[in-house]
Amino acid sequence: MDGALPLPAPLRSASLSLAGEGEGLPFPEGRGTAPEAQGEGGAQSRASYALHLGDDALILGQRLSEWCGHAPALEIDLSLANLALDLVGQATSFLAHAAALQGQGDADALAFHRDVLDFTNCLLVEQPNGDFAQTIVRQFLFSTWQHLLYQRLATSTDPTLAAIAAKGVKEVAYHAEVSADWVIRLGDGTPGSAARMAAALDWHWRFVDELFAPADPALVAAGIAVDAPALRPAWDARVAAVLAEANLATPAARRAVTGGRRGHHSEHLGHLLAVMQHLPRSYPGAVW
Question: Which of 144, 150, 170, 277 has the fewest CB atoms within 10 Å around its CB?
Answer without folding.
Answer: 170
